[in-house]
What we know:
Blueprint: H1 3-20, H2 26-40, H3 44-78, H4 82-92, H5 96-110, H6 116-134, H7 140-152, H8 159-168, H9 172-205, H10 212-226, H11 229-234, H12 240-255, H13 261-277, H14 281-314, H15 317-327, H16 337-351, H17 354-369, H18 376-384, H19 387-390, H20 397-406, H21 410-434
Helix pairs in contact: 1-2, 1-15, 2-3, 2-14, 3-13, 3-14, 3-20, 4-6, 5-6, 5-7, 5-9, 6-7, 6-20, 7-9, 7-21, 8-17, 8-18, 9-18, 9-21, 12-13, 14-20, 15-17, 16-17, 16-18, 17-18
Organism: Acetonema longum DSM 6540
Subcellular location: Membrane
Pfam family, one: CitMHS
Amino acid sequence: MSLLAVVGFSMIIVFMYLLMTKRITAMNALILIPIIVAVGLGFGPSVGKMALNGIKSVAPTAVMIAFAMFYFSIMIDAGMFDPLMKKILQTVKGDPVKVIVGTTILAGLVSLDGDGPTTYIITTTAMMAVHKRLGIRPIILPTVAVMVVGVMNIVPWGGPTGRVMSALQLEASDVFIPLIPCMIAGAAWVLLWSYRLGIQERKRLGITASNANTAQFDALASAEAEMDEEAQKLKRPHLFWVNVIMTVVLMAALVVELMPLNVLFMIGTALASVINYGTNIKVQQDRICHYGQNIMLNVAMVLGAGIFSGIMGETKIIDAMANTLTQSIPPEFGSRIALITALSSLPFDYFLTNDAFYFGIVPLLAKYATNFDISAAEIARASLVAQGCHLLSPLVSSTYVLLGLTGATLDDLTRSALLPSIGTSVVMLVTALVLGIIPF
């Protein structure tokens, strides 16, 4: 094993240990660990350029996240979602089980478009206020959302499947169609986990099916009582339909890709601020300061992820890890290469970008597999089962949209969702093996 490979695998272990034991924040780990490693390897004079290249690659995403959070924070304060929240709360009758399972189903359906940020925006827009008013733990919404989107992320118009099909010159019929039973099994697991979380919240909140209606009205009354005078001043009920139309137009523009997402949200934020608080410059400035703390934290995380991926790529640590993986497989285990690919994709897909994994590592594994009459399509399918936990990676930009909208931290989301998300991948892998979708 080369020095770079040893360093790469060691970085993964150190990063996970520090993150899971709360010894360092994810942002600081993303920035400091790769820089220290690069300097130690003798790349000191080039570290600044490597880091800057990584930052440039994620800068558009950072801008999009910042202004998306600004826009929807304004809409929430203006009261645009209040009627929707009340209607949903009446429908689920104050039952945490129905709320959490419904959140999962909604996120799964919306994510069929293959766009993570849009899915998170719509899901949190519709459900976050309901979760808050019922007193459901804040981490649950991002947990179930990221889990189900991890399953639906395998659709061929999504990122990973499109990349692996391109890298190995395959069609959707070769990769995606055979994986549909695995996706169904993975989705069923996520729904089961959501139901489990709902039962836990029922017990914690002292709500049963019989008193769910009371919980609904208690939640509404509690929220109205807690709304302070300043929050009430920010409501704009007379602009409700103006805000709705503006949001619908913005969402439509996102879907048809009228402009880049970051530009659309910048325009939307400016319009939302002027329309709702345009006659009061002080309120506009106060809103910017109020939202800024949470927004800056998430933007800093994205930029830190850019430094991490930039240094990992330009120091060739990723290439060394890939070569070590293929060269370390004993010939007698060559016939198990599909299973090895599936198992190794869990750590690789977590710590590498989709581009690095599907364009850098998977083709090497596919080439090696030909020695044992295992097709590229089977390797491609095996490489995708780890999508169940890929979205928890600190290098996935869409996850920061979810964190920003829900107020959760990456540390908390990792502790809440990592193990059940690994369970999703295990369920999908077992399904694939049993049905012969990938060879054992």
